C-alpha cells in the first residue's frame, strides 16, 4: 500500500486529515485528484453509516484504500441535534456561518452550564478487497453564546473546550490536532493503516 485516498472534496478537512496522517510514509491523495469519482450521497442516519458508504464507494471507484469520516455535533439541550445533520443544519447549501448562527439562535437563553455538547467523528477505512475498519473519537465541550476565534472550520468558533478555556477556532492547527475528536479517531486510523502496511 503506497497510497491512500481521503474521500473528501472539502479542502479544509483534506488539509487537516493529511496533517494527521502525514508521516505514515505513504502518498495521501484526495478526491481533487479524482475528478471523475462519484459524488456519494450522505443519506445515512448515523455518522458510521455515512463514513462506511463514502469509503467503500470511493475505494471501489479508485481501486485504492479509501478513508472517509463523518462528524456529528450532539447538543444536549437540543435533544442531540443537529447530530448527523450538522453539516447541513441550516439547509443543504448552508455555510459554516449559517449553521453556527442557527445553533446559537436555538440555544438563546440557555445558561452556560446547560450548553453541553460533544463532537463525534467516525472514520471508515475501506480496503480494495472489501475489508472495512471503523475508528471513532469524541470531544466533550460547551457551546458558546457567540462565535470566538477565526481558525478552523465548521462549528469550531462556537465549541468551547473547557479544560483549555478556548474554542476550537482559537487553537492553532497543532493544538487542535492534539485534542480534537477527529484527531482521536485518526490516531486509531493511523494504527490500522500502519498494521496493514506491516502485513502487506
- What count of helical segments does DSSP give? 5
Strand content: 15-25%
**What Rg, in angstroms, do the CA atoms define?**
17 Å
What value does the average pLDDT take?
A: 92
Question: From the helix content, strand content and strand pairing, which structural class follows?
Answer: alpha+beta
Global geometry: globular
Terminal residue distance: 7 Å
What's the CATH first level?
A: Alpha Beta
Residue windows where pLDDT falls under 50 for at least 5 positions: none
| Total number of domains | 1
Report the strand count.
8
Give the SSE order as H and E letters: EHEHEEHEEEEHH
Helix content range of the residues, please? 25-40%
CATH topology: Maf protein
Query: What composes the largest sheet?
Result: 8 strands, mixed
Q: Which second-level CATH architecture applies?
A: Alpha-Beta Complex
Amino acid at each position: 500500500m503506497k497510497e491512500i485516498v481521503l474521500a473528501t472534496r472539502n479542502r479544509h478537512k483534506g488539509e487537516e486529515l493529511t496533517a494527521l496522517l502525514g508521516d505514515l510514509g505513504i502518498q495521501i491523495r484526495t478526491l481533487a485528484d479524482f475528478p471523475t469519482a462519484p459524488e456519494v450521497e450522505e443519506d445515512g442516519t448515523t455518522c458510521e453509516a455515512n463514513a462506511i458508504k463514502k469509503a467503500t464507494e470511493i475505494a471501489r471507484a479508485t481501486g485504492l484504500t479509501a478513508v472517509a469520516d463523518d462528524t456529528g455535533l450532539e447538543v444536549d439541550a437540543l435533544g442531540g441535534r443537529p447530530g448527523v445533520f450538522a453539516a447541513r443544519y441550516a439547509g443543504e447549501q448552508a455555510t459554516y456561518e449559517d449553521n453556527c448562527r442557527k445553533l446559537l439562535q436555538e440555544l438563546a437563553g440557555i445558561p452556560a452550564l446547560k450548553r453541553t455538547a460533544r463532537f463525534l467523528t467516525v472514520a471508515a477505512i475501506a480496503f480494495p478487497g472489501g475489508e472495512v475498519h471503523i475508528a471513532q473519537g469524541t470531544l466533550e465541550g460547551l457551546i458558546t453564546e457567540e462565535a470566538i476565534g477565526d481558525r478552523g472550520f465548521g462549528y469550531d468558533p462556537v465549541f468551547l473546550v473547557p479544560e483549555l478555556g478556548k474554542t476550537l477556532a482559537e487553537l492553532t492547527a497543532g493544538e487542535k490536532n492534539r485534542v480534537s475528536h477527529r484527531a482521536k479517531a485518526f490516531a486509531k486510523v493511523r494504527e490500522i493503516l500502519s498494521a496493514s502496511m506491516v502485513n502487506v
